[in-house]
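Case study B.
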Amino acid sequence: MLKHALGRSQKWPPAWRDAMPAKHYDVVIVGAGGHGLATAYYLAKNHGIKNIAVLEKGYLGGGNTGRNTQVIRSNYFWPQSSAFFDRSLQLYEGLSKELNFNVMLSQRGILTLAHSHHELEGIRRWANAIRLNNIDSEIMTPEQIRELMPLINLDCRFPIRGGFIQRRGGIARHDAVAWAYARAASQHGVDIIQQCEVTGIDARAGRATGVQTSKGAISADKISIAVAGHTGVLAKMAGFRVPVTSMALQAMVSEPVKPCLDTVVLSPVIHAYVSQSDRGELVIGGGADIYNSYAQRGGIPLLEETVASVLELFPAFSRLRLMRQWAGIVDVTPDTTPIMGKTPVEKLYISGGWGTGGYKAIPAGGETMAYTIAEDRPHPLIEGFGLDRFQSGALIDEGAASGVAH
Amino acid sequence: MLQITCPYCGCRDETEYSFGGESHVSRPAPDAGDAEWSDYLFNRSNPRGIHYERWQHRFGCGRWFNIARDTVSHEIYATYEMGDARPDLPGKADN
Ligand SMILES: Cc1cc2nc3c(=O)[nH]c(=O)nc-3n(C[C@H](O)[C@H](O)[C@H](O)COP(=O)(O)OP(=O)(O)OC[C@H]3O[C@@H](n4cnc5c(N)ncnc54)[C@H](O)[C@@H]3O)c2cc1C
Ligand SMILES: [Zn+2]
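Model:
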């Protein structure tokens, strides 16, 4: 690092090989976001499959993986979600070591606020359910909250009555997660092919055989879709429909300031959350725009609402300027649980419906999808996440527990 | 900010409206079977392109109506009443 610093950081070697597509692969993964890259890595590492390509229409990590607000937590409500998301948090806890790349995991805790007596009751139930799932969660009084974050305004328009915290939750650097999985996958021989858009999925007798791309046709034994907001577009290419709505979810950062907030704080009721990055910027997020969108930019009304909510919680932040605002297209499902596993087309797999909260799921998502693809049957942790639940009625309604978008 | 024209009140800001999702989704027969019912309840066309959708002028006249809107450019190509057929938009394929 010292050598590169003296050389003014001009000659860093690339972390992964930029490949050109071969004619055939054992597995083709569509989308080089966190989920696609992690799936490729675990396929190579845990299942010994080496002839893999990850195809990306833009640049690696340029989708939601590089646009999110980095929140990681496992305080879900239903046992299936808890088991899956806690596995993911555990993998995050060892990720820097596993991938030999500092993903800057910071388990600073995530605090969820309650603004009324009834909400406090709801949060008690939620926090207890989480503890019954063997996941840490603690109820906080307003006094404890004030101690944790002195800048908070407890007597805001919807006064704060309490909250609960998962101390193992926090943030990790999103670009580092994408780059770390890319480098590790590349070292296992995985081809990562950027600027390669999949435009069609070939199938014969109900079985996927390859893809059409902007860089020509590629045949494959197995294909997996990991394209977030474009899940519906890819499903349509393969001839089936999915219960997904694509919407713009935005985030924004302030100018950098000295450390002033060392916990992630969120309010489901006023629909906003904020944390401070290591660079000192306040990272702010809220709900998704209300209508279908594939335009990667957020609407002004929601931006105003989100900022107004954060300023109610932290009036001191009103002195800061917003530096940047952006959006990603998120794929929201009716029960806000992801869609993972097999599809109506044989040898075609899907990891989507991650909506507003799939960053925290990248390690376990990759691990369980790799198993599902290699074994051609769902990994036990994701058995309930299949497309078939929309017919059987066994939805996993995390709408309530997911609370706010993140 | 979308500018949506309510057929009854005229052009207003997005914030006066609520979104009602995809239009022209029709309910299958009671005995249609699980696959068809599941498709009706959960699956949506969610196109990258023209979307035929319902809006309500919630903070205005309160009435529902349809629009045809491009989900990439957000441009609105047609506004029409509930119960009207999907308008033809030649040259505006959804992709
Ligand atoms: C503003 C915002 C804040 C968020 N905050 C959080 C948070 O705090 N915590 C959390 O857990 N989650 C959060 N999320 C959600 C999270 O970012 C996503 O769920 C997650 O990154 C999805 O990862 P992915 O790999 O599935 O998708 P992506 O990272 O979007 O990758 C999909 C890739 O597929 C590519 N692609 C699409 N179509 C094609 C095609 N035809 N051919 C080839 N490639 C294609 C895209 O270019 C893209 O790079 C947030 C999302 C947004 C937008
Ligand atoms: Zn009106």
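The domain at 1-24+49-85 of chain B is CATH 3.30.2270.10 (Folate-binding fold). The remaining cases will be described in the next quarterly update.
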